[in-house]
Amino acid sequence: MTDKKEHIINHAVELFAEKGFEGTSIRDLAARAEVNVAMVNYYFGSKEKLFEAMVQHKAAYLKGIIEELSKDNSLTEIEKLDRIIESYVNKMFNNRLFHRVIHQELLLHQRESLQDSIINIVSPNAVAIKNIIETGIRKGVFRKIDPPLLIASLFGTFNQVLLSKKMCNKLLDKNPDYIPYEDPKFKKRLIDHLKDLLHTYLLKN
Amino acid sequence: MTDKKEHIINHAVELFAEKGFEGTSIRDLAARAEVNVAMVNYYFGSKEKLFEAMVQHKAAYLKGIIEELSKDNSLTEIEKLDRIIESYVNKMFNNRLFHRVIHQELLLHQRESLQDSIINIVSPNAVAIKNIIETGIRKGVFRKIDPPLLIASLFGTFNQVLLSKKMCNKLLDKNPDYIPYEDPKFKKRLIDHLKDLLHTYLLKN
Amino acid sequence: MTDKKEHIINHAVELFAEKGFEGTSIRDLAARAEVNVAMVNYYFGSKEKLFEAMVQHKAAYLKGIIEELSKDNSLTEIEKLDRIIESYVNKMFNNRLFHRVIHQELLLHQRESLQDSIINIVSPNAVAIKNIIETGIRKGVFRKIDPPLLIASLFGTFNQVLLSKKMCNKLLDKNPDYIPYEDPKFKKRLIDHLKDLLHTYLLKN
Amino acid sequence: MTDKKEHIINHAVELFAEKGFEGTSIRDLAARAEVNVAMVNYYFGSKEKLFEAMVQHKAAYLKGIIEELSKDNSLTEIEKLDRIIESYVNKMFNNRLFHRVIHQELLLHQRESLQDSIINIVSPNAVAIKNIIETGIRKGVFRKIDPPLLIASLFGTFNQVLLSKKMCNKLLDKNPDYIPYEDPKFKKRLIDHLKDLLHTYLLKN
DNA sequence: TATGAATGAGCCTTCATTCAT
DNA sequence: CATGAATGAAGGCTCATTCAT
Predict the structure, then answer these.
(1) Nearest by CB to A148, which of B19, B171, B192?
(2) Is A20 left (phi over 0), alpha (psi -120 to 50) or beta?
(3) Nearest Cβ partner of B23 from A110, A156, A158?
(4) Does position B86 have pLDDT exceeding 90, yes or no?
(5) Do residues B197 and B88 make contact, with C-beta atoms less than 8 angstroms apart?
(6) Over the stretch C161-172, which tens digit does the pLDDT of each residue have?
(7) Domain-located, residue D34
(8) Neighbours of chain C (3+ CB pairs under 8 A)
(9) Is the CB of B27 under 7 A from strand E?
């Protein structure tokens, strides 16, 4: 990917996160990125293809979360989940604008093929986590719970705090200027909550 | 609210859920609702005011979830939470299109004033739940956990399964045609999971 | 003409004077006159016919200016002109909104038939004045000047001060809040100027 | 100013003169100028900004009428006025469509800021003429008359003949097809009338 | 490779008018 | 007689995209 393309994509993420796909005009984007209006079509072919390119480019951070763990056989299942939580929270906090964009997309029924490719990117992680949980259950370390729905609880918690700053601040009783995603204390608090939830819920006794 | 207005709003919810606010044109909507294009502006003044009217009209289902419980002093805290879960899941399954629309809105930074009014509608429920949890903790019935984040887990789980059918089916290993929101078994499964999660996580021993 | 019709016409004059024919919407007018939107079409048939009715109704003040004088044979030509100036200035000051409306119309090439009827209302006065001037010339009382263009100077002076308050105030070095048309001193000043101009220009010696 | 912009403005003047600002649609204009409907907004930003650009561009002819004279100290006051009359009549005959447009604007209360800028363009000439007249009076060459109202008579005469061809022809007893503004004889006649009027009215004896 | 100019399609909205009562 | 509801047409404007250079 050339510098110019990456430059455009970085500004596209910002705008898409703010205004959505339909709400962002190529002229907005060109102005924000300080490039010619024809550049987007020149480099990417169309607004939609720019979006796809952005997804492909930015989704990288989602990969590799699991791979690291599967190599390390010395870890127990609960340790693996702890690592995943830490890794996930860190990565999502750093990529929260893009994260918001792909969740906008999942909420719509436009551009279905794009939805499929997003799901193809996201779901391997879910599957891997499910495998870990099922292994824990099979080993008798974990209680017999509903793995898919526990994963929904896990991801849902992330998303609930990440997707709307206003809602998050309301829940936390913070003033509207507080940006939880830039506060290391909040990050630790979220990680602690999720670990505690999984430990308490999954581990026997 | 007149029949005509309600008729338009009902079709508007469908289209907004599918395509988002910017992605839905008044012409689309007029065609879908089989009314004249000028009707939306005639009845609501503008596309944006139609949206607001829709939110006010449809948000009714969110009210009253909590009020019912606060009257009943015979219930313990965990029983209250159980009732809330049941009530919430039922109501959200029935209003899932609208639910999707307001979550689209929370993801964007367009129309901020509308966001505020959505939050004003949604948050009282969260606050009420937080009060119940904190009361349980104070009474020594519940473990000392992080109430706001537990609520995020609770709502997050709902949203995670409700907001994207595709993602939900992927998680559940269902085929793409399965509509979980119309399957009573799935509804029960979700309710059971959430009750189990809260019971296990909150109750001592 | 019914009271209702006259009521509407009176508000129509105000709005047309302010915003012009195309710039005034029937909804504006209905709101201003506090009648139903359908009333204009109900009473007048269309917006254009309302305009025509307004012209016919309001043009009455222009009639009779000359008739009064032609009866009185005891007046000299210059005395007749003096009377006409007084009468004209008084009537136009009282009907300046309508006066502005018909001059808007004369400036456009829309609604040509209406222009004709306006001219048919206005021109008899000009013709009568021309006759007076030509009689004066024939009698040797007036200098031999160009009657049509002198009439242009006469009407042109009226219009120049009447049609734009801003322009008028600029010329008079008044502040923008001054309303010359409501100041009796200004009226006298205008009459004096026109009389002086005609006397000096027309009378020999 | 690019050729394309000027091309659009030239057709805009025609249409605005014919139909007024509100009566002229961008689609009309695009068709007349044989350009795309989006061109007006592309070049000027909006219909209103096109209008302003037109005023700025076309008003040039009004400037410089006076400046020429103020340099020449050898001219007497009455000679200066004679030159001004000639210059004004010539320029206004050549720009009569635009002249009509700005007088439409002065008649309305829409777009007040534009009115101000028109007055700022027009009034310097009036002020300069007033100075000449007042100087003449002070020197004892001119009779003591009412300068602002004499200027109203001067400009009013121009406007009276220029603004409505129909009215003008009626006054002159010409048939409706006669176009006075293209007849050099009429131009001379107008100039002669105005010079005669000013000479007779202003000069002592 | 890069871009300013240009465009057709579509947007939301307002319009004068008509209709059913 | 009067009016609230409803409508097709047209309004100004913005859009993603294409084109000539």
Answers:
(1) B171
(2) left
(3) A110
(4) yes
(5) no
(6) 998 899 999 999
(7) no
(8) D
(9) yes
